[in-house]
Amino acid sequence: MSTGLLLQYVIIGAVVLFGALVTVRKLAPQLTSRWLASLALRMDRPGHAAWQRWFGRLLQPKQAAGNCSDGCSTCGACGPKPPEPARQSYPLEFRSRSK
Fold first, then answer.
1. How many CA atoms lie within 13 A of 8 on its CB side?
2. pLDDT in tens, 19-72
3. Which of 49, 76, 72 is nearest to 62 (CA)?
4. Which distant-in-sequence residues (6+ apart) come within 8 Å of 68 by Cβ?
5. Cα separation of 42 and 88, whole Å?
6. Burial class of 62 by CB neighbour count within 10 A (0 to 12, 13 to 18, 19+)
7. Helix (H, G, I), strand (E, B), or coil: what is residue 26?
């Protein structure tokens, strides 16, 4: 196997792996959040190197810590939101092909 072919396989494999991770993250956000939290806890231990602890803190998913002043509307107690402006919709126009 030549070096160029091996490099091509590595690049294609990395792109496919990245696409699979993005897909799983979009389809199962709670699952990936749990995975990231467990990985972050494993890396952020007192006996590990400084770069591992930093990376563990970086991977830690953000926690939902809402209160009534941030307007997150997760509990429904913040009141109704103002209506969004209506989008303009345009009807489809079908034109015959000119010959």
1. 5
2. 999 999 899 888 888 888 898 889 888 898 999 999 888 888 776 555 565 555
3. 72
4. 77, 78
5. 50
6. exposed
7. helix
What would the two tokens of residue 64 be? 């939902």
Unique residue bearing structure tokens 């930093």: 54
**Stronger pLDDT, 88 or 75, i.e. the higher one:** 88
Residues whose CB falls within 8 Å of the CB of residue 77, separated by 6 or more in sequence, listed in order: 68
The beta strand positions in the chain, using DSSP E, are none
Amino acid identity at 39: L
Q: What is the pLDDT of residue 61?
A: 76
The two structure tokens encoding residue 22: 């993005």
CA 73 to chain centre: 21
Joined together, the tokens standing for residue 3 give 């070096």
Report the predicted TM-score, pTM, of the whole model to 2 decimal places.
0.49
Give how far Cα 78 sits from Cα of 56, 65, 72, 83, Å. 34, 15, 8, 15
